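All the exercises in this workshop are built on plain-text protein records. A record pairs a protein's sequence with a compact description of its fold. The structure tokens are whole numbers drawn from a learned vocabulary of backbone shapes. Once this layout is familiar, the rest of the handout is easier to follow. An example says more than a description, so a record of this kind follows.
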Amino acid sequence: MDPLTVAICTLACFILYNVIKVAVKLLKMGPFSDYASKSDGPQSMPIIGLAYLFIGGAEATMKNIIEMGKTYPPSFQTSLGKFSIFATGIPGQLKAVLLSSKTIEKNEFYDFGRPWLGNGIFTAPASIWEVHRKLIQPSFNSIVLKSFIEIFSAQSFILVKKMERHLDGPEFEIHEYLSLCTLDVICGTAMGINLEAQTKENCHYGKAAHAVIAGVTKRVLSPWLYPDFIFNRTRLGKDQEKNIKFLHGFVDNVIREKKERISQRTSQRELAKNGQNAADSSSTDPEVLIDNLIKLSTHNQILTDETVREQVDTIMVAGSDTTSIVGSFVILMLASQPGVQEKAYQELCDIFGGDAAYDDSGEPPVTSEVLRRMTYMERVIKETMRLFPIGPLLFRKATDDLDLGNCTVPKGSTVALNIIGVHRNEKYWPDPYKFDPDRFLPERFAEQEPFSYLPFSGGPRNCIGSKYAMMFIKTFTAMILRRYVLAVDKVIPVEDVRLKMEFMMTPAVPIAIRIKKRTQEHKFS
């Protein structure tokens, strides 16, 4: 037979094989399917399941995810390709899943990120994740986070200076500024290098990372791209391989240079102990994540250079993209809500004394105590993450039957946690589309349904960098508000903000604002 005929026959056999697998799996789903038949969820098509809902691009996908949360019951059974899925947005069930040892594993969708992130803590199997999480956790303790404030502040100062070119001008896209700033910050705090993405205004690392994220998302929502032998032969697969090679090479070079520097310091200290002259026998450079991981790898066979790179890659993407996207939504909410913006600014006035607006005489005095006192600002950020959770859907895999009371999730099933669904559900959040930071006043939030707010996931496998993200977002938002008044030409209701799904939830239309220099007369006319 000619090569084309062989290829067609191979593909036909593969499809038939997977149809049989799905059919057998569905027949075995006794208690699960009994519950599903009563749940009246969206119709699942043969072979592809719900994949038909995700045709039309990332924006259509996000729209359908939100609509499913409104149209169908808060929990239902369905499928996506070969995966049987139990979807839920019920806080009690979310709690059970996130706290259970039976659902500590990520599902197979995360495997598509492994060519890049390997066994980083985001994608690792539970047995590896548990060990590595304990090793990485000290790099995010309060003492280390306080040492990062200087980097947060310095890079945020560059950010507001770069934005200055748009003073009194038309709307401009804010994300490109935040993206380069957060990339510089994560490079400084995770790898101890100055990428200078903001000053150079062009960064191949950032572009390559964004391309891989978009490609992984497209593959998750396209069951026909699941097999490696198909995906790797597509343009998407080839581009991903090229971008991942660049990303790995970038971090590998940093690891190599860091190890050489650590070795030199060790030799210098030995010379100093022996009474010999040695320049730079000590260093005042703060130890960042990669330094700690390299030290662990020197004495611990668990961490190889490849393992170090996987953890750094994971922290890089988690700390850069997520923070810049959340920051963009925070800026949009402040620009769209003049009253909220004014209250946030007045809090800064109370903290810094008098008029909080500053000039170019020096960097603003941002300290850990200053950040702690930004309580209203923190509520603004939390309310933004309620309405625009960076991870609108999370996935876990049941490694054993999991009893949820009114149903049982059978072993091998995927559990889809509908975070955006519960965040925007009027049952748990009255008038859910109203932007109200005071929902997070301690006395009000204490009455909130547990596990109805999960912007950083929950349980033992929650986001390791939640405090890091909050401190950094507070820093750059405060600096922006102290210098500029924010506004938009047209205020768009929260429910009408166009969104898209690219593994993380992002704006479908770039967020654009305009700025005016903040003075005593800081209102827009």
Remarks:
- Confidence is low (pLDDT under 50) at residues 3-10, 19-38, 278-282.
